[in-house]
Each structure stands twice: as C-alpha cells, then as structure tokens.
Design goal:
heterodimer, A: 11 helices, 75% helix, B: ABC transporter involved in vitamin B12 uptake, BtuC, 15 helices, 2 strands, 74% helix
C-alpha cells in the first residue's frame, strides 16, 4: 500500500510539474498583459505537431529543442497582429479573441495533420521501464521531471537576473511606471507573450511523448492549468508553480483511494481555496 | 421621442417573433431554426443580464444551461413524464447550483471572475461526461421525448407539431424577457447599473455590492436554466457538448455581437450566430475555423455589436 501511495505521489508530481509548466506560461501572459490565453491549449498542440513533423529531419532531440522556439515565433506573430490591438480594453474582448483562436488552431491542426491520433516515437531507452521490481516507471517520466525542473529553474533565473526578466516582473507590478522609465512596453509584452507560448510549445512536445497526438490534446490540460493558477494565486509565479504541483499530487493521491474522484478533487481544492483565501495561496490581496 | 422609438422597437420584435412559423419558411428557414434562435437568444439575454447590465464577465454559463437541460431530460426519462414538472426540476437545479457556487465567486472581479466561472463550469462537464450510467456519458441522453402539454380541458401537442413547440418556447421566452425587463427597471436593476458604472461609488453609497452581484448571478443562471430546459426539449436529446466551455463562449459572442448595452441586442446576436452556424456547418466540414474566425472578426471590428453601431450612428 505504501508503495502504491509513493508511486502515485511521484506520478502526481510528474503530472503536477506538467500542469505547472503550462500554467506558468498562462500566468506570465495574464500577469503582464491581463489576457487569459484560451488558445494556450492550441499552442500546446502546435508544439507537439511541429515536433512530430520535425523528427524525421532533426531526430527526437532536435525536435525537442527547435519546435518550442517555432511555436513561440508563431505566438509572437499572433500577438503582433491580433492580441496587441486589445490591450487596455475590457478583458472580455481578449478572452473572446483567444477563444476564437483556439477554435481555429484546433480545426487547423485537424486539417493539416488529420483527425486521427498520431503516435509519437521517443527513443527506446527512454521508453523502457527503469525498474520492474518496484513499480512501473519509464525513463521518459523521470526525464520529463528533470527537464521541467531545469526549465522552471531557468525561467526563474531569467526573471530574477536578466534585464528582460526584471522588466517583466516590474511591468507586472506597474506597467505605466515601467513605460515612463523608458522601456518599450510593446516589445516587452511581445517577448513576454513569446516566452509564455514557448512554455506551451515545450509542454506540447513533452505531452506528445506521453499521450500521443490528437488535435484536442490541449483541451484536457488547460483546465487543470487554470486551477493551478487560481489555487496558487493570481499574479504570483511561485504560487502557480506550487498550485500545479499541489493539484497534481492531490489527484495522484486521490486516485489511490477513490479513482473516480481523481479529477473532481482538483475542483474541490479550488472551491476550498476560494472560500478560505480568495486571492489564492500565494496571491496578494486586492490585486484582482 | 425616445420612449416612442423604444415602444415601436418592442412592438416590431414581438410581431416578428409571433410570425416566425409563417415568414421563416418563406425565406428558406424552418420552424425548428426559429425555436433554436429564441432558445439561444434567451440564454444570451440571461447572460447579458450579468454581463451587460451588471458588468460582470461570466464565461461559465453553459454549465447552468446544461444543468437545466440534463435535469429536464433525466426527469422525463427516469422520474416523471411531464414536460412542465421536468422543466421545473431543471430550472430549480440550475438555480440552486448557481446559488451555492455564487458566494465563492461573488467577491472576485474581472479576469479572475471569468477564470473561476470557466473552471466551475467544467465541473459539470466532467460529471455529465463521467457519470455515464445516468447521463449517458459521451453519447448523451437519448431515447426520451418531450410530453404533450395537458391542460385538462385541452392538449397542446408540442411533441409532433413544430409550430406548437415554437409557441410554447416563445411563451417561456416572453415570460422570461418580461421578468428580466421588470427586474432591470426596478430599483434592484438600477442598483446593478450603478455597480456596473462605478463599483466604488456604489459601495460608498452603502450598497452591498457582493450580495447584489450574487443575486444578479443567480437570476442570470435561473434564466439560462430555462433556456437549457427548452434546449433539451427541442432536441429530445442532450449531450455533454451542451455544457462545454465553447457553449459559454457562444453565449458571450451572441451578446457582444448584438450589443451588450441593449436589451434586445443578444436576440439579434443569437439570430445572426445561429443562422450563420446552420449555414456554415451545412456547407463545410471546417465550420470550427469559420466560427473561430467569426469570433476574431467580431472582436476586432464590431466590439460594440449591431445595436451599438446603429445607436452610435443615430447619435452622430
């Protein structure tokens, strides 16, 4: 029993790390631009499918590196052409726009790559189980955790020690002042959007290796990321990270005792957080 | 002058709606399409009660629409084969769910409110999807049908006559529209407008803002529940798509497209959206792209909606 519990806690951490990766991208965009990017799941699918197309040319590792950057580039273009026009207006409009984008991306991937689910090949040594004796755990999952950890550490290093990152954090607190101090806010928001979409693209490549590819791959992953943000607290990136891990572990542990409630538990957690601490675990009061 | 114009507009709307079964087939439509338009229009108007008149952005109304639909269907199928009773069960359940969830979100504003309504909405999607022994899961709930209305002295055969069902739905629509118009013109409705215009000032005047937002949310969900119940009856079928997030987006785009600041705006938005969707999905398989593109175009070029543009022209 302990073994099963430990296995599920670890599994929950993997899933949680994954939610956190996606939620961090959403959170970056939300904090600086006030846009709930509903198309995040769509960009995730684009990342996965681009990697699928690139594998024959670049191999698994090449696709893993290149595909998120290409996705981020598409994100930067989308921000430039569409989303930029809606800054400063009622959040209703950006929400509707990204809603429409999500539809278009889902249909577009279906049109280009087909509606049936595609297999995504990962190197055999990664797909092999690490140990048959204790519990079933593939190298790929461990690799995912390591990679997500590295990326999250990298993200926090960027945000704390580079000029771009410091400006993004400052802009989150007070965009007007940052603008007055001579920072080009348009470019800042553009790059920040690209950074968020990069994380979505990377999540997509990783998800493809675990779940395979279908046009709706992002649909089931976007809601938990929303909840990770709400539980962790709006406006706080460490909160988002903690929220993601927390709901991952919670649903992992619940699947030991009540398998059918493993999805419901994250909504219960959200409700509990909203009742006890409406601003989220690490969120600041009065920000939203 | 203005109230005369308003009266004329109201009169025109009701004449057009009453005549739908007669003029719609002449222009290439069919009666069921008319029923679908008024049902969606009711949902969009109910959403607009919150969005346009209280200034609170909900993106999760599909949940209460679907809850109304599912509970109506389940009542007819398993419990008690009567259309009014089933509708009542559906509406009460939707309203009760909204009343319970309301206190958790009434304190939140703006994007945060929107996110939480989306997330809570998804709860009901999962329930409908997973609890397949009752809800039929992904395949939906079929093998039931609406029951003709029996008044004792006469029966209205809403099952076999499309026209009868249309007038039944229109009666419900009219009742709800009148109730909403009454509420909006009451002191309560004026308070909601005040909250929309300047929440801080409303708070300083001693208005319990959170409680008013909660009340507006519950009322809005009640009428969406009515629309959901009618939707289930119209199709004699419900599936989880009735309460998925994209349905919530449809309601919002209808309200925006018609004009959020006007009472009849969502009706116009719903008519345009439903007719367009009906047409596009009959011509191409890639209708999702077109609907998505439509969302983008409306946001970029018609953010004030049809009535907003007309009104602006009238002013200048």
């Amino acid at each position: 029993m302990t073994q099963l519990l430990l296995f599920n806690i670890f599994n929950g951490l993997i899933i949680g790390a994954f939610y956190a990766l996606m939620a961090l991208g959403l959170s970056l965009i939300l904090n600086l631009s006030g846009v709930i990017n509903f198309a995040h799941g769509g960009f995730l699918a684009i990342g996965g499918y681009l990697a699928y197309t690139l594998i024959p040319y670049l191999g698994f590792w090449g696709a893993l590196v290149v595909s998120p950057f290409l996705t981020a580039f598409i994100g930067v273009l989308v921000e430039r052409v569409l989303i930029r026009r809606l800054y400063g207006r009622d959040p209703l409009y950006s929400l509707l726009l990204t809603f429409g984008l999500a539809f278009m991306i889902e249909d577009g991937t279906r049109f280009i790559w087909g509606a049936q689910s595609l297999p995504y090949h990962i190197p055999t040594w990664l797909a092999a189980p690490l140990s048959r004796q204790y519990f079933f755990l593939t190298g790929y999952r461990v690799f995912m955790v390591l990679l997500v950890t590295a990326v999250v550490v990298g993200l926090f290093v960027i945000l704390n020690y580079t000029r771009l990152g410091i400006r993004i954090r400052a802009g989150t607190l007070d965009l007007e002042t940052v603008s007055v101090l001579g920072v080009n806010v348009r470019i800042l928001r553009n790059l920040n959007f690209g950074l968020g979409i990069y994380l979505a693209g990377l999540s997509g490549v990783l998800a493809a290796g675990m779940l395979g590819l279908q046009p709706t791959v992002g649909d089931n992953l976007i809601m938990p990321s929303f909840i990770a943000i709400i539980v962790g607290g709006l406006g706080s990136l460490p909160g988002t990270l903690a929220g993601g891990l927390l709901i991952g572990v919670a649903s992992g542990v619940t699947s030991v005792y009540f398998p059918s409630a493993s999805e419901a538990v994250i909504y219960v957690m959200m409700a509990a957080v909203l009742i006890v601490r409406p601003q989220g675990l690490l969120g600041e009061e009065g920000r939203f | 002058m203005e109230w005369k114009g308003k009266l004329a507009a109201d009169f025109l709307v009701w004449v057009l709606l009453l005549g739908v079964p007669y003029w719609l087939p002449l222009v290439g439509g069919y009666v069921e399409l008319g029923s679908r338009v008024i049902i969606y229009a009711l949902a969009a108007m109910a959403l607009n009660f919150l969005l346009g008149f209280t200034g609170v952005l909900s993106f999760g109304h599909a949940a209460y629409f679907g809850l109304g639909a599912y509970c109506t269907a389940i009542t007819i199928k398993y419990l008690y084969p009567s259309t009014p009773v089933a509708m009542l069960v559906g509406i009460v359940t939707a309203t009760a769910a909204a009343a319970v969830i309301g206190p958790m979100i009434a304190r939140l504003r703006g994007v945060y409110f929107a996110m939480c309504t989306i997330a809570f909405g998804q709860v009901f999607y999962f329930i409908a999807f997973r609890w397949s022994s009752v809800t039929g899961g992904d395949d939906g709930l079929s093998a039931w049908h609406r029951i003709p209305l029996n008044f004792g002295f006469a029966t209205l055969d809403i099952l076999n006559s499309n026209k009868a069902f249309y007038y039944f739905a229109l009666t419900a629509f009219a009742t709800c529209a009148a109730a909403m118009a009454f509420l909006l013109s009451s002191p309560f409705g004026r308070t909601l407008l005040a909250i929309r215009e300047n929440e801080r000032r409303a708070r300083f005047l001693g208005i319990p803002v959170d409680r008013h937002i909660w009340a507006s949310w519950v009322i809005s969900c009640l009428f969406v529940g009515v629309a959901g119940a009618l939707y289930a009856l119209l199709n004699d079928f419900v599936d989880p798509r009735a309460l998925r997030w994209d349905q919530s987006g449809n309601f919002v785009i209808m309200a925006v497209l018609g004009g959020m600041r006007s009472f009849w705006g969502p009706l116009i938005g719903a008519a345009i959206f439903i007719v367009l969707q009906d047409y596009v999905s009959s011509v191409t398989q890639n209708w999702m792209s077109f609907i998505g593109l439509f969302f983008v175009l409306v946001v970029l070029f018609f953010p004030r909606g049809v009535l907003g543009i007309i009104r602006r022209k009238a002013v200048t």
